[in-house]
Amino acid sequence: MDHLDSVVQGIQVALQPGNLVFVALGVFIGTLIGVLPGLGPTATIALLLPLTYVLEPATAIILLAGIYYGSVYGGTITSVLLRIPGEASSVVTTFDGYPMAQQGRAGPALGIAAVGSFAGGMTATVVLVLLAPMLAGVALSFGPPEYTLIALTGILLVAWMGNVSVGRALIAAGLGLMLATVGLDPISGEPRFTFESTSMLAGLDFIPIAMGLFGLGEVLYNIDKSPTGTKIKHKIGRIWPTRSDFKQAAPSLARGTVLGSLLGLLPGGGSVVSSMSSYVVEKRRAKDPSRFGKGAIEGVAGPEAASNAGSTTAFVPLLTLGIPPNVVLALLYGALLIQGITPGPTLMTDRPEVFWGVIASMFVGNVLLLLFNTALIGAFVQVLRIPITILSTVAVVVMLIGVYTVQNRVFDMVVVLVFGLVGYALRKFGYEVGPLVLAFILGGILETSLRQSLLISGGDFAVFVTRPVSSGILAVIAVLVLVVVGRTWLTSRRVANTVTESESESESGSGAVSGAEPESGSEPESGSGSGSER
Amino acid sequence: MSDAPTETAGTEAGTAPAQPSERAWPHRLAWGVFGALVIIGSIDLGLGELREPGPGFWPLVSGLMILLASFTLRPPKNDEPRPETFSNNPWRLVSALVSVAAFIAAFAAVGLVLPVLALLVLWFRALAGMRWWTTLLTAVVVTAALTVGLVYGLAVPLPSDPLIALLEGTG
């Protein structure tokens, strides 16, 4: 009965006029930035973090969560119309969405994507309602060893599932862990890596780092790009798919929803992994896989349902364990900390209005998003005409002033500038900043829980094996490591074979083939060095 | 992912434009040195014992992680983001960085209005390529909106601004 009361309280919070306005604003901004390539949800949430300081906790998280799942919807629009994914999880939608647009079926592609997103989002919110209280109950029995291993799993999975090699992701994660140690030691109080600067004694704050890496770093990266707006070539036409479209896409929608809901629960999960996995599943199950990549509606429906379901159930580990499973939710974790709330198993009982209010607002947000992405899609497309540099300029000013307002420190603005440059450089050199930020957030949890575990056990690492839950998590980590090492070994063997074959072919051929010549310098290294990556 | 059309995935994700080959050793060297420096710093802080880890214990873990991961670096595969060539016109980036640094210094010295206006004019005109007339109009409108919103709407505490003081008659 208590549980039901809390759910009712959450619905009341979500339906308060102020919160309705902010959920609408959140999903509107989310759709907008999903449409705009170059300004993703991570940068936008980082940008708005300080401004949420003045809002009530539930309202702030409702707004930011709306931006997150709104951007997953909005990212589809440019994927279908321009073959440019508005954000990472929409990459898969370009494979069949754009060919549909080329065939004059942009409307049904966008329509089925909106319906798929709605079905995935709503179903996953129900999963969230049912599953979160159970997991929070279990998590109450977790101690420092379990938290150490869960945080470690999160970092490892993010490193493994990223776009870059595991080595590069681990370096970014290591940098994040190292940066998290700057400031006073949480146990002895001794300064670490502060270089005798009083501003550094309090440690590096999460907000300026996130704003620098994602916000300013993204803006600096886009400065190299074209400052002009984008023109849409394909007509959208009738949005609502036909009955046969629905019939064809319905099983994919269902499979995508289930798959996304499950994958979103895992640390490292979320919309990107879910959409990609769904595409692979749909293609493998298809009677004629050759249709995929040429405008198969199942290739749009499944991944869209999966990405929205995944982005929603990804809230489960954040709200119940206090472990952000991906980078965007790491920013939401930061937003909760700004509000003086530490996410974890007690959040549901200590702050039910935040916990249930945010979840209830997702139902409202998904309904609004279905409306935005069907009836108002033409209006959102017009935003593409605005050059990204103009939006970026305003974003930079808001970002710098915003970060100052959190603690009234000019030092934080300097941190934004420094990490903006770091983010730009990392991206240019082929690294991802996601694992860095996630490791920075989880670094504090990891260090404290590991040191507490060692203090409890008198320095005996067996504490991670003797406890049933922690040993179970350890087994999962071991399986993951085995999978990664196995894949690495297989890949390196394949690469080595390919290199050997291409070298023998080029030796027997009549000379250098166009394109092969500049690559040759890297091939021997990739053959020898890849063995330890994946 | 591997089942997807590779051309579409690579080019449109904006992650893997065709680039010249990349050598791994500068990355290995740079990160290896950085990891080693972190390890030295950690030892200097004091590692403590396993039953009571010292302040350098956790930094040591992060340093080791960076050092060990640096050994595994190799040039990116085809489906991974490659290092990108830097712009032929580095002045856009340099001017953006210098202007942001100048903005921070000016913001601390003279408050909100003039630094915001100057940064907007510079970026709209020089980086976005807007016309002078549109630049000035947009910059003034955005500055006014930000000032009203932050100073009067949200009552955000900002460094003292002589221009606002003058307008309010308190300067």
UniProtKB/TrEMBL annotation, chain A:
<keyword id="KW-0472">Membrane</keyword>
<feature type="transmembrane region" description="Helical">
    <location>
        <begin position="109"/>
        <end position="135"/>
    </location>
</feature>
<keyword id="KW-1133">Transmembrane helix</keyword>
<feature type="transmembrane region" description="Helical">
    <location>
        <begin position="200"/>
        <end position="221"/>
    </location>
</feature>
<dbReference type="InterPro" id="IPR002823">
    <property type="entry name" value="DUF112_TM"/>
</dbReference>
<feature type="compositionally biased region" description="Low complexity">
    <location>
        <begin position="507"/>
        <end position="527"/>
    </location>
</feature>
<keyword id="KW-0812">Transmembrane</keyword>
<feature type="transmembrane region" description="Helical">
    <location>
        <begin position="384"/>
        <end position="404"/>
    </location>
</feature>
<feature type="transmembrane region" description="Helical">
    <location>
        <begin position="46"/>
        <end position="69"/>
    </location>
</feature>
<feature type="region of interest" description="Disordered">
    <location>
        <begin position="497"/>
        <end position="534"/>
    </location>
</feature>
<feature type="transmembrane region" description="Helical">
    <location>
        <begin position="318"/>
        <end position="342"/>
    </location>
</feature>
<dbReference type="Pfam" id="PF01970">
    <property type="entry name" value="TctA"/>
</dbReference>
<feature type="transmembrane region" description="Helical">
    <location>
        <begin position="470"/>
        <end position="490"/>
    </location>
</feature>
<feature type="transmembrane region" description="Helical">
    <location>
        <begin position="354"/>
        <end position="372"/>
    </location>
</feature>
<feature type="transmembrane region" description="Helical">
    <location>
        <begin position="410"/>
        <end position="426"/>
    </location>
</feature>
<feature type="transmembrane region" description="Helical">
    <location>
        <begin position="169"/>
        <end position="188"/>
    </location>
</feature>
<protein>
    <submittedName>
        <fullName>Tripartite tricarboxylate transporter permease</fullName>
    </submittedName>
</protein>
<feature type="transmembrane region" description="Helical">
    <location>
        <begin position="20"/>
        <end position="39"/>
    </location>
</feature>
<feature type="domain" description="DUF112">
    <location>
        <begin position="20"/>
        <end position="438"/>
    </location>
</feature>
<feature type="transmembrane region" description="Helical">
    <location>
        <begin position="147"/>
        <end position="163"/>
    </location>
</feature>
<feature type="transmembrane region" description="Helical">
    <location>
        <begin position="433"/>
        <end position="450"/>
    </location>
</feature>
Automatic annotation (TrEMBL), chain B:
<keyword id="KW-0812">Transmembrane</keyword>
<feature type="transmembrane region" description="Helical">
    <location>
        <begin position="29"/>
        <end position="47"/>
    </location>
</feature>
<feature type="transmembrane region" description="Helical">
    <location>
        <begin position="136"/>
        <end position="155"/>
    </location>
</feature>
<dbReference type="InterPro" id="IPR009936">
    <property type="entry name" value="DUF1468"/>
</dbReference>
<keyword id="KW-1133">Transmembrane helix</keyword>
<feature type="transmembrane region" description="Helical">
    <location>
        <begin position="93"/>
        <end position="124"/>
    </location>
</feature>
<keyword id="KW-0472">Membrane</keyword>
<feature type="transmembrane region" description="Helical">
    <location>
        <begin position="56"/>
        <end position="73"/>
    </location>
</feature>
<feature type="region of interest" description="Disordered">
    <location>
        <begin position="1"/>
        <end position="22"/>
    </location>
</feature>
<protein>
    <submittedName>
        <fullName>Tripartite tricarboxylate transporter TctB family protein</fullName>
    </submittedName>
</protein>
<feature type="domain" description="DUF1468">
    <location>
        <begin position="33"/>
        <end position="159"/>
    </location>
</feature>
<dbReference type="Pfam" id="PF07331">
    <property type="entry name" value="TctB"/>
</dbReference>
<feature type="compositionally biased region" description="Low complexity">
    <location>
        <begin position="1"/>
        <end position="18"/>
    </location>
</feature>
